[in-house]
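Human: Here is a favour to ask of a fellow structure person. Comparing notes only helps if you start from a blank page. I am asking you to supply a protein in sequence and structure-token form. Write it directly below this note and I will take it from there.

Assistant:
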Amino acid sequence: MPSLVELQKKLGDRVTVLAVSEDADNNAFEQFVRDHNIDFLAVRDPRQSVNELYGTFKFPETYVIDKDGTILRKFIGATDWASPELVDYFNKL
């Protein structure tokens, strides 16, 4: 999460980071958001609708989706979102 926060800060309004949690407990979700200083859009999906929609099977999974809703890339596992390679990737979109 810290590198996603950093990526959002670096890229500003050129990208929108959206975190989807499947936490059933809203208090746990809100505490996680506070503890990790998440200042981008974070939502809770306790019914796991997004998992079904995108075929998520391993956490974390991250999708790069363009403005038309097309999945451009999928990342499975932890990723350093603030790495120079990924910042460059997003800058080129």
Q: What stands out?
A: The longest helix spans residues 2-11. The chain has four helices and four strands. Helices lie at 2-11, 26-35, 49-54, 84-92.
